[in-house]
Amino acid sequence: MTNSEKQHHQKPHAIFIPYPLQGHVIPAVHLAIKLASQGFIITFINTHSIHHQTSKAHNNSDDIFAAIRDSGLDIRYTTLSDGLPVGFDRSLYHDQFMASLLHVFSAHVEEAVGKIVKESKETVTCLIADTFFVWPSAIAKKFGLLYVSFWTEPALIFTLYYHLHLLRMNGHFACQDVREDPIDYIPGVKTIDPKDTMSYLQESDTSSVCHQIIFSAFRDVRGADFVLCNTVQEIEPETIAALEAKMPFYAIGPIFPSGFTKSAVATSLWSESDCTQWLDTKPEGSVLYISFGSYAHVTKRDLVEIANGLLLSNVTFVWVLRPDIVSSEDVDPLPVGFKEAVSDRSMILTWCCQNQVLAHPAIGGFLTHCGWNSILESIWCKVPLLCFPLYTDQFTNRKLVVDDWKIGINLSDRKVVTKKEVSEKINRLMNGKSGNDPYRTKFIELKKALENAWVANGTSLKNMDSFINGLKAKAQTHCGLVL
Ligand SMILES: *[C@@H]1O[C@H](CO)[C@@H](O)[C@H](O)[C@H]1NC(C)=O
Ligand SMILES: *[C@@H]1O[C@H](CO)[C@@H](O)[C@H](O)[C@H]1NC(C)=O
Ligand SMILES: *[C@@H]1O[C@H](CO)[C@@H](O)[C@H](O)[C@H]1NC(C)=O
Ligand SMILES: *[C@@H]1O[C@H](CO)[C@@H](O)[C@H](O)[C@H]1NC(C)=O
């Protein structure tokens, strides 16, 4: 088909490639749906591995978007190899997985994008890809596409990575005798303690594959035509304003499933157990929800202290415990007798629909690894957080939750966690609801910001409009297309 024939089709067509990790795929799927409902054609690309695990968990077939397509959205779906066999244990061999994404995946992406561009009836306008990929600028350029970078973490994290050169220059990163005093020269960040930066910025060996990915990705993102971030203007105003002054940065969060608790598209990698009937029998705000997310590992020592802390606390709880929470080589890490001892006041599940659990009135607290999706969801449900960050952005997210917003408490202040402290902190968190709830006012403010972001005149709605208009204008001058 020639270009002039293609020009009769006026919808922007985006190829969307999420990072192949659960926490990245979830907001990507829901952003894809949002864009499709705004008139985009989307070709969504998952890795074979993510696709295989998702469809196995939900017994569905070839196409995770099948159900939503009936509602008239034009979302096409395809899958690609990330360079490793589907059965490879990516979580256990994290570095090999990351190395494959760094060195091999781009060749598969390039081939697939070339094929889609060639075979699509409609001109492909842009490549939407996770900021952590190292190749989007180059591949977009090769096929004449605009590059839209999708950032699934807070703006604060983005800006810290984006300004790595300043951290180096000032001796806060990648040098001998790294400075320990607060960082106060990042535009839009008043001050941040080096201990609250991302785990990768606190390591002395900066030659790991993850460091290479971060360095390359944040070089590449300078070539992005647009950056979309799953945050909300009102919750990180200074940081976002500083970024907006510098680049086409758009805060368009929170990206949730349209019904929040019910997603038309299955995104979880494990099948979900339903504990709502059990929760229905519990008093309001009385149950602690515990999850360390989809990927991070907890050491056996910490896991045992947390379990024993739960035992001491007497609290009722739902614990989502992936089989590989410690390691896929240690599938039953709980202390002997623990499950029996707490059987009358707990549900221990492999996985659940987190939004549904957090939204349940019985939930009164969330012991979390501080993943960004979990924090946004917790704000939405006004559930205070007990923070146990494990790696990457989670330390920095903890700072936002505990130090800046004051909607949660630290579990351990980075010291070794003990069962006594776990029990005390759990009870402190859960007692917040009774008596004088210290989190209430801030939750009302943050929830309102999230809610208002997507209503008329809301900041995310406006930012999304301005992104779409900007994309259309740029596509017109860039590719000579009328969109
Ligand atoms: C998928 O199928 C298996 C076996 O037939 C069944 O045990 C499981 O509950 C199903 N899962 C879902 C999400 O439907
Ligand atoms: C838990 O229950 C036991 C037995 O009733 C009691 O001795 C203990 O003080 C309780 N612990 C807390 C933290 O409430
Ligand atoms: C929480 O822990 C961090 C270290 O991770 C510490 O800097 C901060 O002061 C602690 N905050 C509170 C309120 O205890
Ligand atoms: C949106 O803002 C404009 C300009 O401030 C105002 O005229 C309009 O009434 C607002 N619309 C809604 C629905 O609030």
UniProtKB/TrEMBL annotation:
A Pfam family per the record: UDPGT
Superkingdom, natural source: Eukaryota
Enzyme class: transferase
Entry keyword set: Glycosyltransferase, Transferase
Keyword Transferase: yes
Keyword GTP-binding appears in the UniProt entry: no
Matches recorded under Gene3D superfamilies: Glycogen Phosphorylase B (3.40.50.2000)
Gene Ontology MF term list: quercetin 3-O-glucosyltransferase activity; quercetin 7-O-glucosyltransferase activity
Family assignment from sequence similarity: Belongs to the UDP-glycosyltransferase family.
Protein name: Glycosyltransferase
Source organism of this protein record: Quillaja saponaria
